Amino acid sequence: MLPYELASRESRPENTTINVGDCCFGAGQLVMIAGPCAVEDPDMLADLAVMLRGAGAHVLRGGAYKPRTSPYSYPGLGEDGLKHLARARDASGLPVITEVTDIRDLDTVCKYADILQIGSRNMQNFPLLREVGKTDYPVLLKRGFSATIEEWLLAAEYILAGGNHRVILCERGIRTFENYTRNTFDISAVPAIKHLSHLPVVADPSHGTGRRELVAPVARAAVAAGADGLMIEVHPNPDQALSDGYQSLNPVDFGRLMDELTPLTAALGRHM
Amino acid sequence: MLPYELASRESRPENTTINVGDCCFGAGQLVMIAGPCAVEDPDMLADLAVMLRGAGAHVLRGGAYKPRTSPYSYPGLGEDGLKHLARARDASGLPVITEVTDIRDLDTVCKYADILQIGSRNMQNFPLLREVGKTDYPVLLKRGFSATIEEWLLAAEYILAGGNHRVILCERGIRTFENYTRNTFDISAVPAIKHLSHLPVVADPSHGTGRRELVAPVARAAVAAGADGLMIEVHPNPDQALSDGYQSLNPVDFGRLMDELTPLTAALGRHM
Amino acid sequence: MLPYELASRESRPENTTINVGDCCFGAGQLVMIAGPCAVEDPDMLADLAVMLRGAGAHVLRGGAYKPRTSPYSYPGLGEDGLKHLARARDASGLPVITEVTDIRDLDTVCKYADILQIGSRNMQNFPLLREVGKTDYPVLLKRGFSATIEEWLLAAEYILAGGNHRVILCERGIRTFENYTRNTFDISAVPAIKHLSHLPVVADPSHGTGRRELVAPVARAAVAAGADGLMIEVHPNPDQALSDGYQSLNPVDFGRLMDELTPLTAALGRHM
Amino acid sequence: MLPYELASRESRPENTTINVGDCCFGAGQLVMIAGPCAVEDPDMLADLAVMLRGAGAHVLRGGAYKPRTSPYSYPGLGEDGLKHLARARDASGLPVITEVTDIRDLDTVCKYADILQIGSRNMQNFPLLREVGKTDYPVLLKRGFSATIEEWLLAAEYILAGGNHRVILCERGIRTFENYTRNTFDISAVPAIKHLSHLPVVADPSHGTGRRELVAPVARAAVAAGADGLMIEVHPNPDQALSDGYQSLNPVDFGRLMDELTPLTAALGRHM
Predict the structure, then answer these.
(1) B96-99 and C201-203 beta bridge pairing
(2) Which residue in B159, C90, C176, D82 has the most C-beta neighbors within 10 A?
């Protein structure tokens, strides 16, 4: 028996497909998740969401609870941030994904979110995994920045074992000796997951590279390797973002990326 | 300003000392923490604790809540395990340290433990750090297996910033390409912490090596490098342990290690 | 001044282009290098070369001198292997690339090779770099398996500083904690090199993944990220290869990869 | 059969001992190798050697051929540097160790050196390993900065297989994600080598830490872990050293380290 029985391709040969709003993960479509690292101003967020929808995005991302390395860094807006996300959803029609970092906030996050995100630092927060496994929300499970592929699938297994089968994996780069990039985006993880598991996998080239100029090429690469979706940090004014601006695209660059992806997905027999 | 203001040696030039039972971390004594990876049978634990006390150990370790990579692995005994620990404390007189993995278990763990342990996987579980920072229990904070020294000190800063100044750091090996050992014990972290911070630092060569035959030499090395204490997995019958037996010493080998450490600490101007 | 002055994009804004046979690195074409890890039987090699040419490959690879981790592993055929490569070139019309591992073999290798390969283990063999820098042969410089991008460009700088400007960089995966793959293919290195340097960069997904089933998706990814070429291990019967068979494609799979790459390169505005 | 047959403890249960001058590696003595990173001024070197001898050092180190990451860095004095080493040997009575980086310089280096050093970057320079394996000089083989313990022992096997059994291994730190230290000194490698092999192993805490203030504690740790010797960079005026000054001790600090090591080795049943 494989250690990750429920997550394994053997246990379920066909792809798991997960519908959110009018998009579907795991069925050939390239699902585009976009938005700022952290939710800041509500008007700005709603305007951005409308713009992203216009450019072809399917899901709005934004952090209300931010896990920060330092206790003195910007922690996010909390429930106010969730309310801003909900307002941006109303304005744009885009479903929203946001991170839950504290098990005690789960009910609150569920009131506002369409997809729950488990961040890299919480990939092995097993009580949190068990709790989201009891909900019926889709869960995007980011790979721990030093997790092996097996450990990542075992983390997914915690959620699946709780009865929640709507798990989306997200490769976001691993920690290595290379310091030119913020992380080393593990492109092989994308086809490896498709080989080992039936779960959809998306790519986050923003955290995976940590450098704005590398986001588009690595995004294209992830699609060519078989990713079911992309998660891209977009900010109306990256240089003034409260978090991670150096890896955020502005809306114009995001539009340019969408233009590149259209022929690429077509050449791969996929669609957007 | 340093990113870890409160943890920095600059902010407090003299060593922080932390008294637990009749031992003291950070004041020249080599504090010996020993016990099984996971609490199993209560009688066995009490007998082992008495034996460890006789061999010179100062603190009893044992896991009641085990963070396990797989949802199907042995999860620990929960509160029953805590009760067994308390009974072993009564039998031996040794204070006990045990891990808290779920913020919801904190009050329960505090009813039984003398020192709270934050495990490697939870080093960046920021809500949990904030909560233990509100208690007045000593906290042993293990280094994340892929955390930099700076990230580790920033995690300590979360606890200190909450008002709890009784933080003990624990080096337990980092994840690298080398796979002969379970982890790569970062010996330099010991003097680096003493240089950068006023907090005491102990070493866990059991997890740091993952190989029984390397535990004693790496334990001696950590002491020679300046560690304030050691945390050693000891099991009455390692080959039948429910968790991590391959890296556990038996009581005889633990006694032999204690015999080696006595002249070593004396040569270093320390005591046990 | 940048540490790698001659290799830097600042010193030469336009791409360096390198012609070999009827293909060109760095000018939009996707150059396909293919062949066995090690040269074995001469007839088999010539037949394979003809087949590869038919499938659209541009350059034949094959090792005559193999750097092997163990002194007891197959070391390659030496000069006989070079002769077999030359014969396969005559039979197929494909120029050949082969590795030089010993400075004393350089003149011999130059008698037969069209492109000199410096392997990963020799990326910082500085005397060898200086010597190939004195030749006028194109040099394919593989990234050391633990070299940073800066160290890699500085290794190229050794060759450029000797007066040889025909350097092709080759990303082949780096060593990390992940052991599902043989190496972690650093996809970000491809656009990073295009950003930092004017030198062409090719990708070796065979060594970069070490798993046959991952070669094609990572090859596609590298092209989408901007690689100027691909280096693919192909063996007529991978399961009987004397070296690295588990990561070699057979000719049928190579043909299938070529079929995938044609629409992909077109969608990217490139050609094969 | 083990992959490293000749290097294995199984093939030779007793320790290999290697005599150089009046010291012996592998027989309980702690052999102290000390000197500057690179040979600079001849008078300074001779004076330093006399001072080191006075402080209790057994072997003088110094680089005449320096493998440098950049082609523009100080390359060493070449044969002139070797001559300065020979003069310092005459002045002090200390045998000398120096690195050979180019197979073509081997005969020249053998004219002056008492121990040949193979540096980290050349640990898998197999032609060079084979050549030093044909000499009867003791060879100090540094671990590659990303080599596993198995690869390191296989590199030693190349030398042993050539008939030269006088191989001394040297742990000098491995490359990891941690960047506070220059490398991560792998303390477990010391007892692992003693367990797996009969060859002596020494430790280089200067390169292993890259920080002057960590050299002494890590040196003590290596001794406590069982190292047969230490290799310490000492420079009369570290802040003006042409190479690696930030990790060099001055003679006063070296003397202080020697004073610390005397009681430590005695407590461990060893001698200096």
Answers:
(1) unpaired
(2) B159
Which of C172, C180, C188, C195 is the mutation pick for testing A, counting most A CBs within 10 A? C188
Chain C partners of D178 at a C-beta cutoff of 8 Å? none
- In 3D space, the residue among A101, B131, C102 whose CA is nearest the CA of residue D122 turns out to be C102
Distance CA C24, CA C7 (A): 19
Any bridge partners for residue B59, and if so which? Answer: B33
User: Residue D181 and residue B188: Cβ atoms within 8 Å?
Assistant: yes
Taking the CA atoms of chain C, what radius of gyration do you get in angstroms? 17
Q: Which residue has the tokens 């805590």?
A: B82
Q: Which residue of chain A is at minimal alpha-carbon distance from D145?
A: A177
Interface size, chain A vs chain B, as Cβ–Cβ contacts under 8 Å: 65
Residue A172, Cβ neighbours under 10 Å: how many? 24
- Find the CATH number of the domain harbouring A217: 3.20.20.70
Q: D153 phi and psi, to 5 degrees?
A: -65, -30
The number of distinct structural domains making up chain B is: 1
Residue C38 lies in a domain: yes
CB atoms D175 and A179 under 8 Å = no
pLDDT for position A134: 98
Find the angle CA(C2)-CA(C7)-CA(C8) to the nearest 5 degrees: 50
Whether pTM > 0.95 for this model: the answer is yes
**Closest residue of chain B to C145, computed from CA coordinates:** B177
Please report residues of B whose CB lies closer than 8 A to that of C177: 146, 175-177
Q: What is the pLDDT of residues B12-29, one digit of tens each?
A: 999 999 999 999 999 999
* Chains contacting D (3+ CB pairs below 8 angstroms): A, B, C
Mark out chain A residues that contact chain D at CB-CB < 8 A.
146, 175-177, 179
Beta-carbon separation of A161 and B70 below 8 A: no
Helix (H, G, I), strand (E, B) or coil at A142: strand
**Does A260 map to a domain?**
yes
**Average pLDDT score over residue span C41-67:** 97
* Residue B5 banded pLDDT, cuts 50, 70, 90: very high
User: Domain range spanning residue A182?
Assistant: 29-267
pLDDT digits (tens, 9 = 90+) for B97-115: 999 999 999 999 999 999 9
**What pLDDT shows up at residue A242?**
82
Residue among D4, D71, D158 minimizing CB distance to C158: D71
Question: Which residues of B lie closer than 8 Å to A, measured between beta carbons?
Answer: 3-4, 67-72, 101-104, 121-122, 124-127, 130, 145-146, 151, 154, 157-158, 161, 175
Give the model confidence (pLDDT) of B73-96 as tens digits: 988 999 999 999 999 999 999 999
- Among B177, B179, B180, the strongest candidate for a mutation testing the C interface, having the largest count of C CBs within 10 A, is B177
Q: ipTM greater than 0.95, yes or no?
A: yes
In the structure encoding, which two tokens stand for residue D14, read together? 């007793």
B46: in domain: yes
Show the 3-state SS of D165-179. CCEEEEECCECCCCC
Q: What percent of chain A clears pLDDT 70, i.e. is strictly above it?
A: 100
CA distances from C30 to B20, C50, C254 (A): 67, 19, 15
Looking at this protein, which amino acid is placed at residue B195? H
- Name residue, tokens 């199984």: D10
Residue in chain C closest to B183 (alpha carbons) equals C177
Give the CB-side neighbour count of residue A21, counting CA atoms within 13 A. 20
Confidence check: pLDDT of D224 > 80: yes
With beta carbons under 8 A apart, name residues in chain C contacting B176: 177
Residue A88 lies in a domain: yes
Determine what percent of chain B is predicted with pLDDT higher than 90: 95
Identify whether the C-beta of residue B187 lies closer than 8 Å to the C-beta of residue B217.
Answer: no
Subunits in contact with chain A (3 or more CB pairs closer than 8 Å)? B, C, D
A 10 A CB-CB count for C252 gives 9
C-alpha distance from C220 to closest chain D C-alpha (Å) = 29
The pLDDT value recorded for residue C1 is 54
